[in-house]
């Protein structure tokens, strides 16, 4: 309420009730190659003035103050979460350095076999639980040979602090969705107790690390 009363909300000219995802079960479809543009177009870099010229809006933000994103109905549909203070920015830098060091020790980098990907020139590895890729039941993510490193990372104090802040922010700004996540997570672990729980104290059960 304090944030909203100060007018620090971002309003967008969209009614999210019209989105396909708002009308029940929804799966995003992979776009056709022609829709993605040429390789040169996909890799093009734009200046700020060029992006504004394309119709985008520039919102100046230093990454500290929370900014909720509201649709035409005043519903919070997104959030720039900001930072909680108390040395959090230093913790983020420490987390980045930790991930880069672990990646370097494992021989990972933009030129490693795992680095060449449409998401960008960096390897990414997942840990936790997923039901994606056509699985009919939740399964554990193996980490593709990086399991031990990933488990060490999720247990490190700076990574734990990041996860705790993400979890607290989610529960504050989207309490009903958070409760749905929490109920679903508890149900899953009660029925599939053999699944790993790498993120105790939160409702997120998986994470991706970019090296």
| Regions with little confidence, pLDDT below 50 for 5+ residues | 1-5
Distance between the first and last residues' Cα: 38 Å
| Global morphology | globular
Q: How many individual domains?
A: 2
Helix content: 25-40%
Largest sheet: 3 strands, mixed
- Number of H- or I-type helical stretches: 8
Order of helices and strands: HEHHHEEHEEEEHHHE
Strand content: 5-15%
The number of strands is 8
Which secondary-structure class do the elements indicate?
alpha+beta
Please specify the SSE layout and strand pairing.
Layout: H1 2-5, E1 10-11, H2 33-36, H3 39-42, H4 48-53, E2 67-70, E3 76-80, H5 88-105, E4 116-117, E5 120-121, E6 124-130, E7 139-141, H6 147-154, H7 157-173, H8 175-191, E8 206-210
Helix pairs in contact: 5-7, 7-8
Structural commentary:
The protein is built from 8 helices and 8 strands. The chain is of the alpha+beta class. It folds into 2 domains: 79 residues, no CATH class; 123 residues, no CATH class. It has a 3-stranded mixed β-sheet with strand order 1-2-3, with no helix packed on it. Helix 5 crosses helix 7 and helix 7 packs across helix 8. The two termini are 38 Å apart. The N terminus is likely disordered.
Main traits of this protein?
211 residues; alpha+beta; 2 domains; three-stranded mixed β-sheet; three-stranded antiparallel β-sheet; 14% strand; disordered N terminus
